[in-house]
Amino acid sequence: MEYKVLTEGDVLFFQSILGKENVLNSDLELYAKDCSENLEFFPDIVLKPTTTDEVSQIVRYCYENLLPITPRGAGTGLVGGALAVKGGILISMENFDRILEIDKENFQVTVESGVINYHLQQAVESVGLFYPPDPSSWQSSFIGGNIATNAGGLKAVKYGVTSQYVLNLEVVLPNGEVIWTGANTLKNSTGINLTQLFVGSEGTLGIITKAVLKLLPKPQNDVSLLVPFRKLDEACDAVSAIFHANIKPSCLEFMEQRAIHAAIDFLGIQSMPMDVEVEAHLLISLDEIIEHDLPKLVDVLTQFDIGDILFAENELEKNRIWQIRRKVAEVVKQNGYTIEEDTVVPRANLAKLVREMHDLADKHSFKVVCYGHAGDGNLHIRINHPIHKNSYNNATIREILLELFQIVKNLGGTISGEHGIGLIQKNYLPIVFSSRNLALQNQIKHSIDPKNIMNPGKLFKN
Amino acid sequence: MEYKVLTEGDVLFFQSILGKENVLNSDLELYAKDCSENLEFFPDIVLKPTTTDEVSQIVRYCYENLLPITPRGAGTGLVGGALAVKGGILISMENFDRILEIDKENFQVTVESGVINYHLQQAVESVGLFYPPDPSSWQSSFIGGNIATNAGGLKAVKYGVTSQYVLNLEVVLPNGEVIWTGANTLKNSTGINLTQLFVGSEGTLGIITKAVLKLLPKPQNDVSLLVPFRKLDEACDAVSAIFHANIKPSCLEFMEQRAIHAAIDFLGIQSMPMDVEVEAHLLISLDEIIEHDLPKLVDVLTQFDIGDILFAENELEKNRIWQIRRKVAEVVKQNGYTIEEDTVVPRANLAKLVREMHDLADKHSFKVVCYGHAGDGNLHIRINHPIHKNSYNNATIREILLELFQIVKNLGGTISGEHGIGLIQKNYLPIVFSSRNLALQNQIKHSIDPKNIMNPGKLFKN
């Protein structure tokens, strides 16, 4: 597709819709990066609409004039999804920051898509309600981006990922038309499921402007346990054992020793004993029915070769151990592990996955660190290659990742559990999808965005 | 679309693929009806394939020869979805009845789409696992049909509907190609969500041949309560109060007095006291954390004007009260309530919905009975019209239903919570969807089934 090059006339049009203050065409560094590797792509212009109607007018203009659009939330994505790889128009949703209605009676909230996850959580908790999805980026990421990538997080193991909380979406389609996708109901068998088609579509099918989200009652109490395992395999096996004992952890995280050490060093935590013989930790939370599940959990854990369990019951103790987990990605990235993968496998194959990742690292002489949402089989794998720091368009890393994803595929898994595909994973899709499956995805994309103006270059090949 | 008329040559082709015994072209009464109203549409031929490859060959032939296909599960649908309204080919999935693998380690099961829900439940329970979705038709309906309609059931209020349990699908597309839609993982942000696009698509986008389903550990114990309310509004209000008290019922059903009386009479239950002043019952189950939730539940209930609560703790007692709920639809249908609607509204609007349905019945001089999944806001409304027994193509009933769905829409709800749209609800879609939304649904249908051979006349206009 040959896109049109932005002209002065286009800029004037956008200014007439948005006002000059919401049309930026210089100093765009902030909008040229996201949180993936070290990539930088400058859009030609950044637009900051405030209403759905403004988004609609902009998009219709781009549709008629063949201008490529990159929708952008907070830029916390890890796969280059918010980068303007074709230049053109970047639409920042930062002004869509209003929580429109909390419906306490029906446990629902209606938000604009630029609301920060953390702000939403705070707002609903203040009225005794609970929005569970909590990706690592929760303090800055937008709900719209969470929906576009079907974000997960720590609590997904018990409460499910973002898709389970999205009841209805207002979307601006690639031709500028505005629709609501569904209804504000807990069940819905009315029409094909447009809502879930937009969840996880990474801004390639339209721009999410509003969302109606399901809420839960706020759990009343919780406890966390940091559990050191002398053998890495046993930490993985314990994950399965916990579920077989019919325990429902609200979080169940895995950290290799290399990951937790880096975070503890970084945070300057002195008082945390770290047995050198320990290979991995599980970080486990229980909520609500603690008295019911905690004894069962300790029974399961003590069947393995573990060190002393650190129990965290008050907020201070809980924060101390959870900040370790929350900081891991940032810290290991600073330590040179710049390439992050987001693999997911059937849960019982976790130990095999970790072992095969270590073998792969040995074979290709890079360092690897594994951590993540063990309860979901969702393992983050960070690679520290002595020479190459980006995976995008690097032949050596590409070869490694082809092997890595083939291992994941052979274990019944797939490329991304919660980050999405975006720019930097799209070339690996043929490993996990047949050509017919990919053709069908492309047909659907083409039927909704025939001119390929909506986040081009992401998720789909072109 | 002008479809081709079936010829002797077509029959011979199908016989060459399936063998004569799996190609039926006479005595097709069994395949001409489903469980909706009194409709009858005969296919020209019924095919009973046994393998995905056979389905693929049949569908490819139909695609090339412009023969309309109606996929059919057990025929338990309530909206005419399995009726061959265009004649042509009916593909019965009854031979797809194998449970292929129960993966105990990963809490997953792989089934063919013609497996009966009840058989699946029995099979997984025998190894300590649990498949929650349990539509009323569970003893005969096929998993493929459950997926195609996104079926709900009694336990959806705690455990969610079918869509939450579908990890991956094998689907024969309208051109005969076969794909797996996703991966056998608990989380997945890889590609657009084809899996959830096929869930609830009612056989209009392809034929589901296999499914990988998520399982849970089997809950260990449960208790049920039948609670009589002297005022119908209070029964509805109690539903909201239960959730506000942070209680998690595993079932939460509502029955108007007219419904429960009919079922009790039909079942010949003598010993159940029925206070004439009672307007409605709630039927509530708790599982697992009974000792935690039961006292809280009784506290909530006793704030309302209720009669004696009937507690059912052993299997005999539980069966006695649950058979009432399970029999309601069949019994009230026999009593002349032949037209069933499957409305769903935000939960707190349930009392308003029931009240407005009664007003509507008074206005148009028909009888109405309401019951259903109160915890989800999903109310089944059955209509007994003194003259008209079918809604399909009946002008009087159509006028009534237009008003009925407008009420539902005004309360924030939609047409179907779990039955689907099929043949008999499709003309009401413009009440709940904008023309742009419907156009988008049609675009997607057209991109996947450009010749409109897959379940034509259902869900979509033509």
UniProtKB/TrEMBL annotation, chains A, B:
Its cofactor is FAD. InterPro entries: FAD-bd_oxidored_4_C, FAD-bd_PCMH, FAD-bd_PCMH-like_sf, FAD-bd_PCMH_sub1, FAD-bd_PCMH_sub2, FAD-linked_Oxase-like_C, FAD-linked_OxidoTrans_Type4, Oxid_FAD_bind_N. Its EC number is 1.1.3.15. Transmembrane segments: none annotated. SUPFAM superfamilies: FAD-binding/transporter-associated domain-like, FAD-linked oxidases, C-terminal domain. Gene3D superfamilies: 3.30.465.10, 3.30.70.2190, 3.30.70.2740, Uridine Diphospho-n-acetylenolpyruvylglucosamine Reductase, domain 2, Vanillyl-alcohol Oxidase, Chain A, domain 4. It comes from the Bacteria. Residues 39-218 form the FAD-binding PCMH-type domain. GO terms for molecular function: (S)-2-hydroxy-acid oxidase activity. This is Glycolate oxidase. It comes from Moheibacter stercoris.
